[in-house]
Design brief:
The chain is about 85% helix and about 0% strand. The protein has helices at about 5-25, 30-40, 45-70, 75-90, 95-110, 115-125, 130-150, 150-160, 160-185, 200-205, 205-235, 240-270, 275-295, 300-310, 315-330, 335-360, 370-375, 380-405. Helix 1 runs parallel beside helix 4 (about 75-90), helix 4 packs antiparallel against helix 9 (about 160-185) and helix 12 (about 240-270) packs parallel to helix 14 (about 300-310). The longest helix has about 30 residues, at about 205-235.
Length: about 400
């Protein structure tokens, strides 16, 4: 078997594990209304569930980045799949807020170990010129997990109920472990000395922070929509049938899968214009939300379709942040740099999710007006992200120019 064939097999095994991780990550989104009834919580309680999941995900990013540089991708992927499966088991039998929080915390921890590990496989086994495209394809294929967590999960909850549905989700973790043990071979990397592999150096690199702010500004809106608030917004705030809402969530995912390879190709073909792509994603997202939130009463279906199509570019746009991490950091600290970049996006997403829940409770909990005020909390995140992208773009370009002239 050729090295390229082995690399493709390793990548495929990692991507399939990532598909299952995305399913776990987003399984709360379409179960949010059922979760509120089963666990006896309101909007703030639902926000707490999603926020805890993201808090553990975000908090684990940098430690996991360091560990994947030390232990390798296979070990981290196996641990992550096992921990997520345990989280779904806990969630399946939860009947109160505290067990529910524990289950989502475990899912956040395991999820944190997955994407970084797959990105490391791409960075180490494939040439730089196709890296952006493969990163986008990783994200694209991973969205199959989001599709499985939309309409099929809604159907399962209706047909079989809470516990059987989440027991089935836990069984997927065993499938991931089996796939990784069978197909992935990844030796432990050789590191010199006892110091962590480049964490301080990765943070000191302006290109890493450019990637972090890219990820934060582009991911937070779609993540909040898919992970928790999109389904209630469409059903309670816009009066859509649950099946229609599920189709819109699936449309968002499918459009994102179509957009990813295009952005990956453009990022690889025109690396100097990556920040321009990021700013376009931020601007169009803010514009689409403005149109929906400013519409008197409930927005028409065509405008909601336009919103989800625009939001579909958020995920692929956030992947450009990982390309910055690869561009400005050597392979020995790519895990740490990727963790920093990923952390930025999920801290922003966690903050948006929490603030939307608080705003909903302050403005009545449901209805167009309550959701209008709640989703307005996104504007400061877009503004700050765009300013920071422009700032670090200027710094990195100045440093690159100085290096070329030296």
């Amino acid at each position: 078997m050729t090295p390229r064939s082995k690399a493709l097999i390793f990548w495929a095994a990692g991507v399939l594990a990532y598909v299952i991780a995305v399913f776990h990550r987003q399984s709360l989104g379409v179960a949010s209304i059922e979760a509120a009834a089963r666990l006896g919580v309101g909007a703030a309680g639902l926000s707490l569930l999603a926020m805890i999941q993201l808090l553990f995900y975000a908090g684990m990013q940098v430690p996991v980045g360091v560990l994947v540089d030390r232990l390798g991708s296979k070990r981290m992927l196996l641990i992550g799949a096992t921990v997520m499966s345990a989280g779904e088991l806990v969630f399946a039998f939860s009947s109160g807020l505290l067990p529910g929080v524990a289950g989502r915390a475990l899912i956040g921890c395991g999820d944190a170990m997955t994407f970084i590990s797959v990105i490391r496989l791409v960075n180490l086994h494939f040439p730089a010129r196709i890296n952006p495209l493969l990163v986008q394809l990783t994200g694209l294929i991973g969205q199959l997990g989001a599709l499985a967590s939309a309409v099929p999960l809604i159907h399962s909850l209706r047909a079989y109920g809470w516990t059987p549905t989440f027991l089935g989700a836990a069984a997927l973790g065993a499938v991931a472990v089996l796939l990784l043990l069978t197909f992935l071979r990844d030796s432990r990397p050789e590191l010199a000395g006892d110091e962590p592999p480049g964490l301080k150096a990765a943070w000191a690199e302006p290109g890493t922070r450019l990637g972090m702010w890219t990820h934060a500004a582009t991911q937070c809106s779609a993540a909040a929509f898919l992970l928790l608030w999109g389904y209630p917004f469409l059903v309670q705030g816009q009066g859509l049938d649950p099946s229609t809402a599920g189709v819109l969530l699936s449309t968002l995912t499918l459009c994102g899968m179509a957009c990813g390879p295009l952005l990956g190709y453009l990022a690889g073909r025109f690396p100097f214009h990556r920040s321009r792509m990021v700013l376009i994603v931020i601007g169009t997202t803010a514009g689409a939300w403005t149109a929906v939130l400013a519409w008197p009463g409930r927005a028409p279906l065509w405008l909601l379709v336009l919103l989800v199509v625009v939001l579909a570019a958020n995920g692929p746009g956030s992947m450009i942040g990982f390309d910055y991490a690869r561009t400005f950091n050597p392979a020995t600290r790519i895990g740490a740099a990727t963790g920093i970049v990923n952390d930025g996006g999920f801290v922003a997403s966690m903050s948006v999710i929490a603030l939307i829940g608080i705003a909903l409770d302050l403005h009545g909990g449901s209805g167009p007006d309550a959701y209008r005020w709640a989703f307005a909390v996104q504007y400061p995140f877009w503004l700050l992200g765009a300013v920071q992208v422009l700032r670090y773009r200027t710094i990195t370009r100045r440093l690159l120019l100085a290096a070329q002239n030296s």
